[in-house]
Write a sequence for this structure.
């Protein structure tokens, strides 16, 4: 029984807050859970603790609500909530339930006409998106809820309904709830697309390795959803998630228009007559980017150095990197687009005789974002590119938040050693990484990749030294050599990275390097500790 139109409302589920927002009633919300993230203004609303039964009753009571709205997850504390204010319990296990909830809320708040309009618009948007893919062949989809054990969404789940509306088939639609499945089952059902969420315990890079035996991995169609709440919060917000999902499953149904004119990193205007179907990549970083955005099935030629993801092993090799590529092999593949970095500029004219050429040359994280977005545009994979950038931004923001208030150690990065040390100066993405990881590059007053002497390194006295695995000198040799007097060696802070490629290639995998570098520079901030790598030199 609700005696008067509610003016002070506490919601105990994010989807309910979203329902009220779409009904134009957000201003009446005075308390929300810790997990509410939409609309943006929710950041200014008082938090009342966890979701449902984990809410803080004292905080709720202090807000003096005249109505509490919860879902069935609040049942264990329902009687206590009713001592504070009237409680309405909603349930949303299907899209029809969402519509019913909106109409019920419209009745409670004397907004029945508005509720009918919201329901009508919501239904129309769902139909519009699903109709765009209705004529497309169904795509087999594997949705990863958790990585260990591998957990997915069953056929009776909300996620499965959305996959179906987006033009897909849940490969585990013969199960119920949230089942744990084996790797053998996933391989046997061979998904065309794998969908990850930010909280599934697995990165895209790890997923490519884990599911390397699937078609999804072979064609580069493993995606990280930028905001999983667009898919799992049962409110009209679902249209955002459905559109994202539909574009990932059926990018051709949302095609960019061609001919297309783009401006590349060399400020060249390149005309692309039709969507590229046969692409030659002249840099491993470009190949990695194309696979990361789901355009791996378009790649017909790569350099001999391309080694990620595993599926690239089956792609024809066209010789060396950039200017060392074999023009005859490229021409024999009859590409409709060639993508290269600035190392291919000496042969640009000859490449243009074969096919249109787009040049990318990122020198920073922001440049890598731009590269991903540009390649997403030219390959008609803009939605996928946006997700990749979003995932990268998430890692960058996480690292930045952890190191922002910490002292910044002086860093010496060793790319290679030969009659001197080759290192990164200003204008390189390694310099950008060191800054983002909370350090200061001791050679940031130089430009590009430079060779420096032992005397220069000793004079600048780094706190941390980072070595690539194939630098030509190992940690033990360095610790026992002329640099033994530096702070880095004396304190045992000389580290060899696990995979040098992720540091040297400006691709989405650069965030792996960023996280590892931040771990080295600020181990305590990430709950880590390292044994001295220079015990011989400091004993």
């Amino acid at each position: 029984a609700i005696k008067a139109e509610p003016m002070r409302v506490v919601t105990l589920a994010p989807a309910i807050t979203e329902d009220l927002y779409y009904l134009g009633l957000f201003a009446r919300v005075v308390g929300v859970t810790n997990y509410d993230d939409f609309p943006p203004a929710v950041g200014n609303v008082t938090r009342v603790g966890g979701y449902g039964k984990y809410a803080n009753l004292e905080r709720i009571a202090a807000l003096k609500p005249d109505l509490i709205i919860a879902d069935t997850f609040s049942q264990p504390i329902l009687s206590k909530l009713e001592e504070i204010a009237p409680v309405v319990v909603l349930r949303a296990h299907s899209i029809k339930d969402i519509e019913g909830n909106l109409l019920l809320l419209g009745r409670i708040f004397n907004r029945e006409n508005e509720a009918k309009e919201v329901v009508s618009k919501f239904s129309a948007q769902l139909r519009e998106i699903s109709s765009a893919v209705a004529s497309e062949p169904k795509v087999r989809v594997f949705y990863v809820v958790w990585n260990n054990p591998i957990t997915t969404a069953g056929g009776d789940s909300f996620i499965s309904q959305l996959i179906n509306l987006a033009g897909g088939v849940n490969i585990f639609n013969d199960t119920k709830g949230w089942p744990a499945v084996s790797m053998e089952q996933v391989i046997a059902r061979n998904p065309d697309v794998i969908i990850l969420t930010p909280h599934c315990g697995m990165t895209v890079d790890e997923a490519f390795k884990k599911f390397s035996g699937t078609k999804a991995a072979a064609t580069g169609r493993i995606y990280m959803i930028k905001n999983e709440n667009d898919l799992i919060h049962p409110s009209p917000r679902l249209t955002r998630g459905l559109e994202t999902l539909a574009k990932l499953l059926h990018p051709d149904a949302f095609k960019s228009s061609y001919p297309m004119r783009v401006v590349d990193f060399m400020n060249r205007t390149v005309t692309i007559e039709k969507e590229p179907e046969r692409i030659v990549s002249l840099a491993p970083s470009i190949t990695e980017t194309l696979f990361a955005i789901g355009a791996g099935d378009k790649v017909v030629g790569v350099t001999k150095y391309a080694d990620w993801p595993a599926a690239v092993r089956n792609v024809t090799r066209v010789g060396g990197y950039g200017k060392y590529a074999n023009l005859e092999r490229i021409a024999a593949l009859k590409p409709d687009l060639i993508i290269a970095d600035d190392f291919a500029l000496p042969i640009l004219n000859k490449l243009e005789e074969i096919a249109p050429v787009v040049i990318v040359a990122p020198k920073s994280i922001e440049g890598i974002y731009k590269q991903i977005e540009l390649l997403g545009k030219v390959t008609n994979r803009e939605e996928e590119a946006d997700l990749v950038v979003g995932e990268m931004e998430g890692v960058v923001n996480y690292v930045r938040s952890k190191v922002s208030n910490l002292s910044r150690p002086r860093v010496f990065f060793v790319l290679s050693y030969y009659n001197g040390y080759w290192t990164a100066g200003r204008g390189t993405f390694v310099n950008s990484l060191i800054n983002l990881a909370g350090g200061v590059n001791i050679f940031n007053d130089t430009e590009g990749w430079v060779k420096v002497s032992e005397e220069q390194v000793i004079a600048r006295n780094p706190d941390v030294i980072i070595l690539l695995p194939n630098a030509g000198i190992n940690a033990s040799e360095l610790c026992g050599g002329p640099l033994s007097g530096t702070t880095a060696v004396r304190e045992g802070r000389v580290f060899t990275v696990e995979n040098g490629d992720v540091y040297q290639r400006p691709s989405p995998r650069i965030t792996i390097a960023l996280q590892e570098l931040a771990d080295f520079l600020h181990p305590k901030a990430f709950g880590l500790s390292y044994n001295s790598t220079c015990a011989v030199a400091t004993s």
